[in-house]
Amino acid sequence: MNLIKVTCACFSPGGSTRKVVNAIGKAFADYPVSKIDLTSWENRQKEYSFHENELLIIGVPSYGGRVPAPVREALTRFKGLNTPVVLVGTYGNVKLGDVLMELRTDLFRNGFIPVAAGSFICQHTYLADLGRGRPDGEDMEVLQKFGAKLRERLRLLVTYASEPLDLPGSYPYTFPEMGELPFKVETSDDCFYCMLCIGVCPMKAINETNPKEINHSACIRCGACISICPAQAKSFTDGPFFGLQENYLRQYCENRQEPWYVIG
After folding, report:
1. How many domains does the chain have?
2. Range of the domain at 231
3. What is the domain-level CATH number for residue 204?
4. Which of 117, 130, 251, 259 supports an S-S bond with 87, CB 3.0-4.6 Å?
């Protein structure tokens, strides 16, 4: 096929999913490549249109086995015209869930044709021992191979495959939408009002004039504000958060999950 443009889109509060998507996109570095940061609230409100000779590479992290709610809402404004799309799901060494199946369902409905998909491991938001440092060197080698094979497949592609990609997950979805978690983001007196957290919050959940005031119903516990805080003044509520770490997540630390991909 005769590609004229590649777009890399991702929701990545911690930056790891962005790293994965950009690594795939490097295979198309000699094409015009644009990027859409869906972590930005403003970007998620925009309308996006794609044609059949463009390629969309889209990546999202698994939130409880599903596509994050703000991304699902944003994807209603993505419109394709038989546009090839690469589906990328990332997860913290626990479970990918129905993410790829959900991406395929929503984007196919809006005029996109899935031509490839992959799942890749990133360091977990709530327990650093899960997938620590990932995507690492081995992961980046797999991503490079994926990108190279994808580019070659698209070069040879004349018509889209009539059979859908064989993806992990289920439809109807096995995993329910992730509700509000029992722990919250708290701010200590170490906060000196640098306001950096306000700029990185994907949900505009932090008061624009007082970073100590957080709308916990809007907050999705992505950890972006915690990571950027120079005073380490923000953290998750101790009790419920440590319970999640020790009683559920730590059991997944022993086994290293490996990346996976398929090209149609």
Report:
1. 2
2. 185-236
3. 3.30.70.20
4. 117
Cα–Cα distance for residue pair 99/90, rounded to 1 Å = 9
3-state secondary structure of 78: strand
CB-based contact 103:113 (threshold 8 Å): no
Residues 197 and 169 in one domain: no
Q: What is the pLDDT of residues 11-67, one digit of tens each?
A: 999 999 999 999 999 999 999 999 999 999 999 999 999 999 999 999 999 999 999
Question: What is the spatial distance between Cα 108 and Cα 101, in angstroms, rounded to a whole number?
Answer: 10
Q: Does the pTM exceed 0.90?
A: yes
Per DSSP, the three-state class of 35 is strand
In 3D space, the residue among 149, 150, 160, 167 whose CA is nearest the CA of residue 52 turns out to be: 160
Q: What residues does 83 pair with on adjacent strands?
A: 112
pLDDT of residue 1: 76
Same domain, 168 and 189: no
